[in-house]
Amino acid sequence: NKRVKIKTILEQNPIGQEITLMGWVRTKRSNKNVSFIALNDGSVITNYQVVADPNLIAEEILKKCTTGACLKITGNVVESQGAGQSSELNAKTIEVLGEADPEKYPLQPKKHSLEFLREIAHLRMRTNTFSAVFRVRHALAFAVHKYFNDKGFFYIHTPIITASDAEGAGETFKVTTLDISKPPRTPEGEVDFKQDFFEREANLTVSGQLEGELAAMALSEIYTFGPTFRAENSNTTRHLAEFWMIEPEMAFYDAEDNADLAEDFLKYLISYALEHCQEDLKFLQSRLEEEEKSKPADQRSEMGLLDKLRFVVDNEFVRITYTEAIDILRNSNPNKKKKFQYLIESWGADLQSEHERYLVEKHFKKPVILTDYPKEIKSFYMRQNEDGKTVAAMDILFPGIGEIIGGSQREERLDLLLKRMEELHIPIEEMWWFLDTRRFGSTPHAGFGLGFERMVQFVTGMGNIRDVIAFPRTPGNAEF
Ligand code: 4AD
Ligand code: MG
């Protein structure tokens, strides 16, 4: 008998057929006449009910059907007597594929805290919450490829090991084969990277953008989707040391085209999840409702998860410039809170997350596309605006998340780009390959980066970014 997944049973309702089910026990309830086993195989959030008659299944087998054990069950699908499901499986044979000692198995059929589950990340995907999150994550990743493929964009695999620090923020992880306790030295006493594997210093990529720009200058419209690495020591609910980023890059796009694409893309991803992950999202919504109950009434969210997602899909994002945002923040500050104060004095300061939150969650109550930031707080490659002070940058801010996308129109004019790189002491000789795009056949182009985990957070409603990636890399955390 071939294995049938629970998802297939629920879709096809094969009443009267003999099937084989394989999966892990979530719970077992027994009396002397019958045992009910709730089995889950990960294909859907729903557990499937297996009915075991002690006259057919030996007691020693039933004893081993404890929470976490893996079973292979063959039997007949019959109409369900109970309320929940339309069918259930009458077991003819049960084979215990893998036992799970109830004394030692860490997952009990009760609610565990997310903090506890983070400590056992190797097992947490067996819970409803995490299996739902990872099914949604899968759907979103698939939707990313579908969106761009349907639009004629090409998927480029940019390198993970590189010598460039695209964002110039100096937050790279070094890659070396040298013995760091006694590295080879030059006669001057410097570490001799000529003797290293790549015969130079190298690091893990912080962004595929620069290589993406090279590809866009040949294939017009491309995207990357890969892991990126940042050694920022930020122990927050929004930062990972290893996160996945989607970076489209388009020749012949200006800043407005870029924002249009970004908004359309985000709405597409959310719509895709709403359409394809209904059951999981409903479960995650009910999980959040439970969580909300423990909060003080005035801090509870007015909208459920699904309504929140539909709201973003159905409404236009707000588009304002940095300068307009500063004005709003200046005139806001209803309680004259000190933390907003410094902005009043200084145009040019970077927005802190509380400012972003204010704009998105209090003032507009909508996603906001913030454009035209002061050049001093943005990367060297962004296109300078006419005013000489701002660049054609774009950040997209989401409620509950903050910055979800960062992007810009790129500086395609060689002279201006060189000038900016000099001002920022970026080693121009080392970037010869990047500058060649501006030397040969340069053209206006633009792109952006979507932090994939932040998107998964928004769609699933998970509060901590560590809970939307299977094995989070954060400061002090790289065990498995
Ligand atoms: O704003 P960032 O740094 O932009 C870039 O890297 C550009 N090269 C993108 C481009 O224009 N092609 O990062 C882009 C997004 C952020 O908006 C955020 O969503 C996410 O990446 N991000 C992180 N996500 C998780 N953990 C971190 N440490 C992140 N840093 C950035
Ligand atoms: Mg950014």
From TrEMBL:
Pfam families: tRNA-synt_2, tRNA_anti-codon. Its EC number is 6.1.1.22. InterPro entries: Aa-tRNA-synt_II, aa-tRNA-synth_II, aa-tRNA-synth_II/BPL/LPL, Asn-tRNA-ligase, Asp/Asn-tRNA-synth_IIb, NA-bd_OB-fold, NA-bd_OB_tRNA. Residues 134-472 form the Aminoacyl-transfer RNA synthetases class-II family profile domain. NCBIfam families: asnS (TIGR00457), PRK03932.1 (NF003037). It is found in: Cytoplasm. It catalyses: tRNA(Asn) + L-asparagine + ATP = L-asparaginyl-tRNA(Asn) + AMP + diphosphate + H(+). Homodimer. GO terms for molecular function: ligase activity. The keyword Nucleotide-binding applies. PROSITE patterns: AA_TRNA_LIGASE_II. It comes from the Bacteria. This is Asparagine--tRNA ligase. Belongs to the class-II aminoacyl-tRNA synthetase family. Keywords: Aminoacyl-tRNA synthetase, ATP-binding, Cytoplasm, Ligase, Nucleotide-binding, Protein biosynthesis. Its main location: cytoplasm.
